Amino acid sequence: MGILRMANLLETLREIQQTRLELSDVKEQIKRMPLQLRAKQNEVDKLKAAIAAEKEVAKKMRVEADSRELTLKQAESRIKDLKGKLNQAESNKEYQVIQDEIKRISGENDVLQDEILERITQEEEKRAEIKVSEGQLAEVEADFAKFKEVVDYRTDKIKTQQEILTKKLAELEPQLGDVLGDYQRITAVKGDHGIAECVNGSCQNCFREQPPQIWQELLVGRPVKCPSCGALLFK
Ligand SMILES: [Zn+2]
Is there a smaller number of Cβ atoms within 10 Å at the N or the C end of the chain? Predict the structure, then answer.
């Protein structure tokens, strides 16, 4: 193998490493995209859950008001009956008993009416809160839709970049010729750390100083492995 050809090999290794690092960065970005979307989606979901809970409370207040309304109606018709019996009372004592019963039920009805009013008020307050929350939800959803559009656009762009880099790497790797086998074995295990630049005599993967013979090999353009970490060195 000629010196020029070997020097080109080191240049190819440098280009390969650069491409691999760019590709790793691009893959990392693609991985992060859905996470950003999920964070926004969680905001939407949280608000939806809060609204559902508020609606549940409003519904409960309505149900409780309705059931008390029913009890109240029954009690009122009972009072009507009792008032009819009052006229037919055959003794003062009986009259008094009926009168007391009417008084007792009326007292209960006052409590019921207060409770109904209280629940109707609470329901109205909840409905007002729900309206505010629904307004917020609409905003958050619109925000999410816009954000998703941006993320989708960026993802498309990054994926195109990934395709370009993958293609470039596929073109560069066969140029390694004899070194290709070593390169494939090392990068299969070490990934991007399988290739490293040698700067001022030190491997940039493990930062160990290289023995002079390694440096000599590199000087004549021969790819060699770092004796410490096994990375394929270039300079
Ligand atoms: Zn090393």
Answer: N
